2-alkenal reductase [NAD(P)(+)] (Acer saccharum), 337 residues
Amino acid sequence: NKQVILNNHVSGFPKESDMSMTSSTIELKVPHDSNGVLVKNLYLSCDPYMRPRMKKLEGSYVESFKPGSPISGYGVAKVLDSGHPGFKKGDLVWGMTGWEEYTLIATPQSLFKIQHTDVPLSYYTGILGMPGMTAYAGFYEVCSPKPGEYVFISAASGAVGQLVGQFAKLLGCYVVGSAGSKGKVDLLKNKFGFDEAFNYKEEEDLNAALKRYFPEGIDIYFENVGGKMLDAVLLNLRLRGRIAVCGMISQYNLDKPEGVYNLMTLISKRIRMEGFLVLDYYHLYPKYLEMIIPHIKEGKIVYVEDTAEGLESAPPALIGLFSGRNVGKQVVAVACE
Ligand code: NDP
């Protein structure tokens, strides 16, 4: 059983040498006193929240990875054997699994059974999985959006951002995204239908850039990056603006988070800034599927993935998230059904 293990707790930017490939033996059967499931992993998901898990965490909603043990994360898998009444051999599932070829999942209650198989299976790491639910809950439940509002999204071409922008367009909002390369800016405008997009790395003054795209100000900011971008947005919000704090990837590799200086605008502009975790919204998953599956089939929502091939490519793919190497949702294809 080939595995990717974390070698050590990480500080600063993660490196490939923080992880290594190893292999162990595994019996391809569930032990008879277990109600777990044994799965063959097909696709693994690289997600930014995995970076905090590479260090020692205290009081967090997620657990640290254990040095010497396989990395865990979301994935799509096929059940090979089951000691749980809810799952049987041959079922396709998505949820928490290991970065290895085969995983014995001791608590399968949190796995989702895949019902729709006439869409790419890898979508269950993205649009039909955790990032999809994040975009859906974050936009519709946290942002309180209304047609015609001005919406700004950072890390807009990524797994979550590309969907938030398309949801906002479907609702009739004016949508602008920021991303880190010309290719990504083109994607935002030409593939995802954003009204405007800009490369934040080419802007010396983010405040001026936002004023250019939002002369009347921003109603909704879908926050994925934090730091300087957040500070600039705070100067450009409209009265009763909203900030959905989804993530702050620019801060994840810093020992000390950067200062944010313009928070007082929250008071004068009566702004609501709300953090959220997708974990609190999974009860909406069936409702989300009902909405999103027809949209995918009718081509009303598109999804761009960046697929790395083979378990060996998982460490560089994960690290690539923090320099923006991924174009769209970063997936690792591990095996065929
Ligand atoms: P993406 O697919 O967007 O990948 C990460 C992207 O972040 C990179 O491609 C890069 O794009 C951008 N980035 C990396 N470093 C920086 C930096 N220093 N400054 C600005 N941008 C940077 O990831 P996801 O869509 O999966 O996640 C987006 C955000 O949502 C993350 O902050 C993540 O932690 C958060 N999240 C939160 C959840 C929740 O429950 N609250 C659940 C899931 C995700 P570029 O080239 O544009 O710089």
